[in-house]
Automatic annotation (TrEMBL):
<keyword id="KW-0560">Oxidoreductase</keyword>
<dbReference type="InterPro" id="IPR055080">
    <property type="entry name" value="Gal80p-like_C"/>
</dbReference>
<dbReference type="InterPro" id="IPR050463">
    <property type="entry name" value="Gfo/Idh/MocA_oxidrdct_glycsds"/>
</dbReference>
<protein>
    <submittedName>
        <fullName>Gfo/Idh/MocA family protein</fullName>
    </submittedName>
</protein>
<feature type="domain" description="Gal80p-like C-terminal">
    <location>
        <begin position="136"/>
        <end position="276"/>
    </location>
</feature>
<dbReference type="Pfam" id="PF01408">
    <property type="entry name" value="GFO_IDH_MocA"/>
</dbReference>
<feature type="domain" description="Gfo/Idh/MocA-like oxidoreductase N-terminal">
    <location>
        <begin position="6"/>
        <end position="125"/>
    </location>
</feature>
<dbReference type="Pfam" id="PF22685">
    <property type="entry name" value="Gal80p_C-like"/>
</dbReference>
<dbReference type="InterPro" id="IPR000683">
    <property type="entry name" value="Gfo/Idh/MocA-like_OxRdtase_N"/>
</dbReference>
<dbReference type="InterPro" id="IPR036291">
    <property type="entry name" value="NAD(P)-bd_dom_sf"/>
</dbReference>
Length: 369
């Protein structure tokens, strides 16, 4: 007898272009024994109907509230822009519905903390979409570090390109230009990636940071319109890990002609490198290399099949599918394997410390926020 399948309603599904269409829908469809997508809600009924027809979803709802309130929905997926996360996630929690929310959980630490507190008080499972945590290359790096491949970690360096926040912007992403929307290079690519880095190396306990807005305006690709940008396009973080090792991070807006993504871990006995084309490690195709002992250089390492089994091969749906599989296990067994809203608060606290350091200068302890 098959285990219960959870009926999913997605809020924010636009066929072809949206993250929900590119990642969530194929990820859920890759887990047919766990989930069935049965409903969609967008900003209007007409939009929901169009998305449902295009994506093969049985039902379109007139609003997020109607979807959340439906007895036919077991799990709510929130895949809208960050400024709308708080109200929709709060509604889902108050309805007692388990909810998967795209990172970031809220527009800042206060919103995230309020949602985590509410979910805990109501006994509702909230899963946060920090899927870089389960990218196979990061999982393998974590295993290697824990097994002593590099010995004692001495330091780590990360340099990456942000893709957005460069000279041009797509029309649908113009909201990224205003940091008040909560979707910045700090919150999105840095937030996703540093979650995975901390999972390998341990938490960052204090930071000194700079957030710099070098590009004051950008061009909209579709219209050639020039818009002001007040969001930082340069991010530099000098951090200290729990074991005392320093970590240096530099994110650069746009697309670099040089390094797209490179994480280096230097230890007493060896070195690891994880590389990719860009700094959105949550959906980048990554590779891992290592060297130790008498090796004079790093060489490519193959991720074991035990870490990277039969999942969707493209990193966009694959990493999200991994989180959904963990969520299904947690819902059935009462375990806590998927990253929760409480986990999200810890990540928001790190981001708030970076913002505080960049604003006031000096070093900021994560625990002080």
């Amino acid at each position: 007898m098959k285990q219960q399948r959870f009926r999913v309603g997605i809020i924010g599904l636009q066929p072809g272009a949206s993250w929900a269409a590119l990642a969530h829908l194929p990820a859920l469809q890759a887990l047919p024994d766990d989930y069935q997508v049965v409903g969609v809600a967008n900003t209007s009924l007409a939009s929901a109907v169009s998305a449902a027809l295009a994506c093969g979803v049985p039902r379109a709802f007139s609003s997020a509230a109607e979807l959340i309130g439906s007895p036919d929905i077991d799990v709510v997926v929130v895949a809208v822009k960050i400024p709308h996360h708080f109200d929709i996630v709060k509604m889902a929690i108050e309805a007692g519905k388990p909810v998967y929310c795209e990172w970031a959980l809220g527009n800042g630490l206060a919103e995230a903390s309020a949602l985590a507190d509410l979910a805990r008080a109501r006994g509702v499972l909230g899963v946060i979409g920090t899927q870089a945590l389960v990218a196979p290359e990061f999982e393998y790096a974590r295993q290697l570090v824990s097994e002593g491949y590099v010995g004692e970690v001495l330091s780590s360096t990360l340099i990456a390109s942000g893709l957005a926040w460069g000279a041009q912007v797509d029309q649908r992403n113009t909201y990224l230009l205003d940091p008040s929307n909560g979707a910045t290079m700090l919150t999105i690519p840095f937030g996703h990636t540093i979650a995975a880095v901390q999972n390998i190396l341990g938490n960052i306990i204090e930071v000194s940071a700079r957030l710099v807005n070098r590009r004051k305006s950008v061009q909209v690709v579709e219209t050639n319109e020039v818009l002001p940008m007040t969001a930082p396009d340069q991010l530099i973080v000098d951090g200290l890990l729990t074991n005392g090792a320093p970590i240096a991070v530099h994110y650069r807006g746009g697309v670099s002609r040089g390094t797209g993504f490179l994480l280096e871990i230097n230890g007493t006995d060896g070195d690891l490198q994880i590389s990719g084309d860009h700094g959105h490690a949550q959906f980048a195709q990554l590779s891992i290399s290592g060297g130790r002992g008498e090796d004079r250089e790093v060489r490519p390492l193959d991720v074991p099949t035990s870490i990277d089994p039969e999942w969707p091969q493209h990193p966009v749906p694959r990493n999200v599918a991994r989180l959904y599989a963990m969520m299904a296990q947690d819902l059935r067994s009462g375990t806590s394997t998927a990253p929760t809203f409480d986990y999200a608060v810890g990540l928001h606290r790190l981001i708030a410390a970076v913002e505080e350091s960049a604003k006031a200068g000096g070093r900021v302890s994560i625990d002080s926020l």
